[in-house]
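Ligand: manganese (II) ion. Inputs:
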Amino acid sequence: MRSVLKKVHDGLNTRTGFFILTLVLLWIKTYAVYVNKFSLGINDSMQRFLLLLNPLPTGLLLLGIALYFRGKKSYWIMMIVDLIASLWLFANILYYREFSDFLSMGIIKSSGSVSNNLSLSIGEILHLSDLWVFVDVIILTLLLVFKVIKIDTRPVKFRYPVGVTLLSCVLFAANLGLAEKNRPQLLTRTFDNNYIVKYLGINFYAAYNAYQTYKESATRASASSSDMDQVLKFLKKNKTTVNPEYYGKAKGKNVFVFHLESFQQFMINYKVNGKEVTPNINQFYSDQSTISFDNFYHQVGQGKTSDAETMLETSLFGLPSGSVMTSYGTNNTFQAMPAIMDQQGYTTAAFHGDVGSFWNRDNTYKSWGYQYFFSEDYYKNKSNYSIGYGLKDKLFLQQSVKYIEQLPQPFYAKLITVTNHYPYELDKQNQTIEKTTTGDSTVDGYVQTAKYLDDAFGEFISYLKKAGLYDNSMIVVYGDHYGISNNHKKAIAQLLGKKSVDSYDLAQFQKVPFMIHVNGIKGGIDHTYGGEIDVMPTLLDLLGIKNTDTIQLGNDLLAKDRNQTVAFRNGDFVSPTFTKIGSTIYNDKGEDVTNSLTAEQKAQVKAQTEYVDEELSLSDKIITGDLLRFYTPEGFKATDKTKYNYKYSEGLKQLKQAQKDKPTSVLQQNNGNSTENLYETDAPELK
Ligand code: GP9
Ligand code: MN
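Predicted complex:
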């Protein structure tokens, strides 16, 4: 026994021994923090393996820096690196406890606003067990100070630290490769900080985030207020005139924005074996008080849902790569829909059954001025309540009612569904229609989850009717983006009953529903060409809210003099006359006319191309240069992000107070009696 101890002690007296001990302790503790202090949502054994592995490469790299130095210096550098890594862990433990998200450089830069946002004092947030992250650093330091461990001053060969650095790089490459395999586009799309930490580790996350922030702030710093001139010129040139038949027709009404996940236009009135897939949505679509657009396209890029949200709430495009919400949502200035509605006396709230950090919603919604964000924490969840990215739609909508009924009216409420999401899996008990039979397994489940979404939508609409909300609300329903990607050409052709599909067909396949229901309004199918960028101006006009000075790249779909060229994020476009895909031009019948255009038609296509390029590049400039900080529209008060806190306990408190301050909620109008019992659902999980 003694000899074993002696061997260990001798080992620790060598620099390599001490290095390994420090590394292993840092590794174990980081993993322990991952498991005990964060909820990273481990779904499979590969994710578990990567979680265990990921502290190692960066640990080797960082502590390995010390090995390039000699003697005492080497030891102290090791301890300092260890301390910094521990402080970073510690700061994130505290931040995570309050926000269920990781600290970003953007947050640290605006740390004043963060501290304002903390609902609890540091004493309340701190748990004694958090201090464990420092124990190894302290003990190792004491062992060195009291010379229990002796400093090994022997010189080392240069190739030794280089070897350690190389090893860390190899391990990191392996880690990254496995992570990308499990979660494609992890870094290009950066959905969620939680994902980066889960797959690549908290130290990598720090470096990655710092790099992104550096890149972003460089562009931001070089932007100036004169850059807005170009934007204003473009807007002036393309301004439409409001349609008096519709302007202000929804004034003062509540607004529901109902987000149909991955829902495409071709599903409307679609049948499988003679059975309608989405009878409720179909009925809503053809209601005489619903304006339904049948040439409405999604315009998202890599940011998918987040791009759709960005366009709907700000009338600015997503980015050529990545997501506006994750990269710029925390710090940029916006003049977004919730803020505008708030300033019109509306209560504003977003509802979603996934974690709040996904797509950086928890920060972006503050920049957009949402008063409430009801995310996963606000919902009861049992093991069979969730599938894929979150709560199943029926359970999500049913549980949303207890918050909706507490919102002082008028309100602006956005509900984001999620069950109809790739890979379209649904538990047996919720399947109420047969799969399609294209043989493409990622496509064939689509109608089943779409049907489920439709059922959930139907239940929600029935509730609105019973609770009296249907008639005093403007109900906006839209599909966020394609559900079946262009990689599934064969299956798409089969679904559409065609032999094959070409690029033109695929462009048309990007149509998503966009419907606006206002009781008593003149509805019908509107054939105007438009896209998600046009939603905000359309809604503001219907609500009779002046928006002539607001920076919006879209235009009112109900205006008669609009440019109907619809940009896709990659610069392609569709329009009533020509469609451009890459360098190919199609006419309105889908025929390739690239080589047979008249001079006049060529000029028209050129003008359309320029229009599309200009609106996309101006949008990018506004976002990357944070140009809206230089421009506040008349009558608009800049959004104060520090006002908002979406923590569960805080949200409840706020709702309670709101009942007293402004007793116009459904609950108050119902003499304090909940309307939850009016909600009928056949969700099997509740039986
Ligand atoms: C998750 C959800 C999905 O919260 O909104 O986003 P998507 O994958 O569709 O972009
Ligand atoms: Mn989506």
